[in-house]
Each structure stands twice: as structure tokens, then as C-alpha cells.
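User: Please predict the structure of the protein below. I'd like the answer in C-alpha cell form so I can feed it into my own downstream comparison script.

Assistant: Understood. Taking the following sequence of 312 residues as input:
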Amino acid sequence: MNKKAAIYCRLSEEDSNKTYHYEESESIQNQKLLLKEYAEKHNYQIYKIYSDENYSGLDKKRPAFCEMIQCAQKGAFDIVLCKTQSRFTRDIEIFEKYVHELFPLWGIRFISVVDNVDTNQKGNKKARQINALVNEWYCEDLSENIKMVLKRKMAEGQFVGAFACYGYQKSVKDRHKLVIDEQAAKVVKQIFDLCLKGYSCRKIADNLTKQGIITPTMYKRVKGIAFQNPNVKQYQNDAKWSYNTVKKILKNECYIGNLVQGKEKKINYKQKKRVLVPRKECIVIEGSHEAIINKSEFYKVQEILNKRNHMK
């Protein structure tokens, strides 16, 4: 009876050279071809091909990877086939957990074709562990290099964010430069004007909703930008202006032409969680782009907001 093999392929977002989001990358196609030929050569029956595209090797929640692990635990196949050990994972803890602990317990053999990893060959366990350590070091070094490049760009006044803040858009000529989005800028000006007239953040939010002005999140979607607000829970109505959205706009220095970046950082290269950085550690470039709000109005608004906070 032929052994059943699960084929696993992965490609990180930074390695992808796809032109369109719906295209399968050439790298994934090549991985599949290589592993299917290997399975055929060794008379393995392919149980299923699992593929995670645009996922880091440190990500523990890759959908296809998690599905494969669930099937492995149920004994659905006998072998896991990968192109290289790093395609399976770049996290040494995950590698040890599955390849050296749970896979043997579940009766599963792990094979990575290019780097000759095979758990049936007990003599190369130390080599596998060294490879796992090197793979994790690669991620750590890559993370540090990316940080250095981003910090240099920030210091040069280049905008490095994925999305421009409401009221601005990335320049067509230079995506690292912010230019005013006239339609959204009118709403930003209205928000500041209402605050100066004595409206609270809550009243401003209600006023904008009653006017039928769409929220920044909805505005981005209308513009065709695939944006998800991490501060809005799925069950909440992001078509309604909120107190927090208004307050965030009123406190944003971007509207007086200041580019403030590096406001958050990851705890470490293996964690997705981000923490706020003290203001003095942020990178601030004054006069980086055209202002929507003049400085005198902006700082009057800050005084109003501070007085309200003291009154609470």
C-alpha cells in the first residue's frame, strides 16, 4: 500500500513577485511541481497540497499550515513533503514541536527535498536542528535590517506607512510623499472648526454621521483601498463616526505638516503585538508636507482638549 504524503508550500510576502493578487506565484508553482515529481518518483500517494502564500515562516496561524497539522493529528497521511525545511517554518520552537516531538508520536515522516532532511535518517537530527537555528537567525537579521532601512527613510522625511492618514493620499509621483486629498481635507477642516465652536468630540461625530459623511474607514474602501480598521470590531458599524475617530483626527500633527513616524514597535521579531513608543523616541519631521490646518488653530484645539480632560 502506497504511503500518503501531504505537500506543503509557502512563500513570504517579501519574496513574492506576483503582479496581481489572484495569481499564484511562480515560486509556489515550482514548489508544487518539484514535490509532485518527488512523490511520484517515490510512489507516494498525494493526500493533499497545502499552500500558504504571503505568510511569514514565523507565523504560527498560517491557514493551510494549521489545516495540515489538524489532518496530521488525525492520521490522514504518513509523510509531510516540503521543498526546504524553512518552507515548513522558520521558528525553531515550532520545528522542534512538530518534526521532533509530535510527528514521531503521530507516525509521520518529515521530508524536505532540497536540503535532504528526512526524519527516517536519525543521524541527521543535529543537522536539522542547526538548520532550524540558522533559519530563525535569518528572520532576526532580516527584521533588524528592515528596521534600519525604515528608520533611515523616516529620518529622511519619507512616509513609510501602508496608508496615508485621512485627509491625505500618497503622491502618484512619489509614494513616500503625502499630498492633500481635497475631498477628505474639507471634512478635516470642518472637524477642527466645530471643535473651535465648542462642539465635543461626541457631538462632532454625531453631526458628521447625520450629514451622511462617510467615515475614514469607509472612505478608504470607496477609494478602492483594502483597509481594515484594527480598532473597529467586526460587529461594530464602521459607517458611523465615533468619539475616538474624531479625537484621533484632532490630535494628529500630520494636519499641520508634521510627519510623526515610529509611534509603535514590535516587542520582538517573533511577535505581531505592537506597543506605543514615547513621543521623544518617535521620528518627527516638521514641515514635511502641505498643512491642512494652520498651527494656531491646531494648538487652540489642543488646549480645548486638554481642558476637557482636566474637567473629567
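That's the full C-alpha cell string. The domain at 4-147 is CATH 3.40.50.1390 (Rossmann fold).
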